[in-house]
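User: What would this chain look like folded?
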Amino acid sequence: MNNENDKIEKLLDRLEAVIKKQESFSVEIDTLRKEIIRLQMSRSGDMELSHDELVPEISPLTTTSPYTEPVIRREMESDMEINPENIAIPETISPVQSPKKALNFEKLIGENLINKLGIGITILGVAIGAKYSIDNDLISPLTRIILGYLMGIGLMGLGMKLKKNYHNYSAVLVSGAIAIMYFITYAAYSFYGLFPIELAFAMMVLFTIFSVVTATHYNKQVIAHIGLVGAYAAPFLLSEGSGRIDILFGYMAIINIGVLFIAFRKYWKLLYVVAFVLTWIIFLSWYNISYEKNTHFWLAFVYLTVFFVIFYAVFLAYKLIQKEKFAALDIGLLLLNSFIFYGVGYSLLDGYKSEYQLLGLFTVLNALIHFLVTWVIYKMKLADKNLFYFVAGLVLVFITIAIPVQLEGNWVTLLWILQASLLFWIGRTKNVPPYEKMSYPLMILALVSVMDDWTDFYSWSTLNAGSYIPVLNICFLTSILVIGCFVFIFWLHKKHPIVITDEKKTNWNNLLTFFFGATVIALLYFSFLVQISTYFQNLYLNSLLEIKDGDELVSSNYNGDILLFEQLWIINYSTLFFSILCYFNIKRFENKTLGLINFSLLVWCLLTFLINGLYHLTDLRSGYVNQNSLSLYNAGIFNILIRYISLAFAGIGIFSMYQYLTKDFMKPVNGRLRIPFDVFWLIFVLIVLSTELISWMDLAKMEGSYKLGLSILWGVYALILIAAGIWKNKKHLRIFAIALFSVTLLKLFFYDIAHLDTIAKTIIFISLGILLLITSFLYNKYHKLITEDDEN
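Assistant: Here's the prediction, encoded as structure tokens.
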């Protein structure tokens, strides 16, 4: 116990010493703050404020005494327990904020705006006076130039003299003088020819350097802006239509090099934006209005490249040297600069000497430029990841564009999907999300491209029917490779799933799963469908039979049965494809969503068979039955056999639908679908049996007896359903049978009676009467079973 008391005593002594030091620091901080404020006030010359107005009384750091010896010692003596709440934590002092200064509009206008307006009006006056003297030939050209330089030098000297006491005002005068120097030099060379081109450019370079040095020395962006605007305005204010566009672009390039130099020294982003906008507006306006391919090609291409490189360098200077953060404006400027360069360059090269190779090479060159920038950023670790990924994205964009520009057809599809697969693999396995995001547009492009390949292949095969090879063709092989890539992507998505952190990512992961799965299934389905359709189209085209009268063509005929076979085989293929999908879903995937979609697609296939397929089968049967010696084409027995082949495929489809209703992973939906499914397949069987009866009567040359036969068939079918409904305790079967009996009776009284002879009427009435009596007997015999079923 004594040892513990000693330890506590020592800790309390240390605590007291630390608190005293803290109070001492607080007093020293207060003193320093007062001294700093006093010095600032005396330097700025502002009206002095009292200390109470500037700095509120700073309370001691500890508002409650952290250590009260008597209290603690009494607690120690009583139970030797120390309550931490008795030791208060010192409050931190919030920094003293200087009072906000009210905006002084008079000072703003008098000291800033008026001088800028004044220098602008002065420059405008010099320009107007010069133009007047030129128009009226008052002063010789040499005198005009000398007076202009003297005006500029005078303003420059005045500005330099006033710099010490009037810093801002001096900066405005100097910037105006620089703009005048630009004016005069441009005029002396372009309009009067007083300077050779070498001297004019040398002087402009000197003025640009001087503007840059002055702006950085004054640390005033306004000097650079006024010099920039004045320099750009000079050619247009003094222009006499000389048409020396090469001089104008060279002049603009010199100005922009100055902007580039400033970007390495100062963070003056607005200067870059102004120069960027003015330069491209001037260049694009000239290109759209005055460009001539035979005269201006190299001039336009060289200066297009110069401007692009300068602005790209300025952009990188702000990012890599000024360490500016990557923002939305940067995305817009970089994309605009890149695509102006590529778009105008593409337009220049389009149609110029072997344009096909040049266009592809130019596109790859764009990708190479951005790749070099990406490599520099990566190797030197000069910028944040957002800039790196964005420039890398531009590399991929131009590579993607280069593929269709340089290549054609299936190569475009293959390279795009391989590129997408590579990016997705890097993004998902290496945890680089931007790469994965870049892969999605490429997947969409690949899908659009493969559909375009199918269309082109179909068109080509119809024009080259004799050259078509089923399955072993470039279109099908391309489709299989695209499917393989999407299977690979789907596998990666499953093996390396997105890390779920919120509901949004869960939804995105589910959407991707659905998209990849649906894409693979759709590509598989349509790849074979295109081959089937193309095969029958080629058979149809090869069936051409021309009838001539001497050398004169009378008619061209094709075998129309081939197109009917095409439609039937497409229905059969679709039913088989979705039945196989059902098998794999049940055996491997057990996906409820896929099951519902698959079930719906099978319903669609079977409905198509009922609506279109049976109609085509009737036409084929009629062609077989009605052919004669005058028929141009022979209708074989396959016109009849195709009916039973199609029915077999339809049976597979119905069986597949039934399998879904028996599986646990489809609960509870399969329970709600059971009765609609029963009704669907009962109607399906009824329609098939009815058409089968008509078909055989047609083959037996008994077309007039189908009314009698259908009524008896429907009555027998209804009786069987009644019996099945009682046996299986399925009320909906019995109700369906009663409804069918009702339809049959309505048909009998309102349609059959008017078209049947007496013997037929007797047969049908007796047959239906017996069937109804049997039905009633079954209901009476098994009424207890039916009643129990209804109660249940």
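Residues 2-86 form one domain. If you want, I can go into more detail on any region.
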